[in-house]
Design brief:
single chain; 130 residues; alpha/beta; 2,3-Dihydroxybiphenyl 1,2-Dioxygenase, domain 1; 2 domains; four-stranded mixed β-sheet; 8 strands; 35% strand; globular
C-alpha cells in the first residue's frame, strides 16, 4: 500500500532542466545510459522530453526554457548513483564528458562523489552507493 502525506504527495517523478538544444541533450543523456521514454510535441512547436536511468522511476524532463527567458546553467541538485564511482568517473571522462578532475573523497559518512556538466552547463552529481 502506498503511503501519502497529508497533501497527497507520494514521490518525485521528474526534475525539469531547461534545455535549449533538446536533440543534443537527448544524445548526451542517452550516451550516459539514460533512455528516452517521452518525446511529445506541445504548443508553439515545443517538445516535452523525458529521460530516465534504466532502472529509474524518477527522470529528467528536458524542456525548453519559458518563452523570452534566457537559459542559465545551474547546479541542479540532481544526484545519480553508481556502485563503482571510479569506473563511472573514468567512463564519463573517456567519453569526453565535462567531469571533475578527480573523485571527491571526504570520508564517512559522506560517500565518494564527483560532479559533471551536461551540454547546457547544468551540474549533476554522481555518488557511490553500495
Amino acid at each position: 500500500m502506498a503511503t501519502t502525506t497529508a497533501t497527497g504527495i507520494r514521490g518525485i517523478s521528474l526534475v525539469c532542466l531547461p534545455t535549449q538544444e533538446q536533440d543534443k541533450a537527448i544524445e548526451f543523456y542517452e550516451s550516459l545510459g539514460f533512455e528516452k521514454r517521452t518525446d511529445t510535441p506541445f504548443g508553439g512547436g515545443y517538445r516535452w522530453i523525458e529521460v530516465y536511468p534504466p532502472d529509474g522511476t524518477a527522470g529528467i524532463a528536458l524542456a525548453p526554457p519559458p518563452p523570452g527567458t534566457e537559459l542559465k546553467a545551474m547546479e541542479t541538485g540532481i544526484t545519480l548513483t553508481t556502485s563503482d564511482i571510479d569506473a563511472t568517473h573514468a567512463a564519463l571522462k573517456s567519453r569526453g564528458v565535462d567531469v571533475d578532475a578527480e573523485v571527491a573523497r571526504m570520508g564517512d559518512p559522506v560517500p565518494p562523489m564527483f560532479w559533471f556538466r551536461d551540454p547546457s552547463g547544468h551540474v549533476l552529481m554522481v555518488v557511490q552507493q553500495p
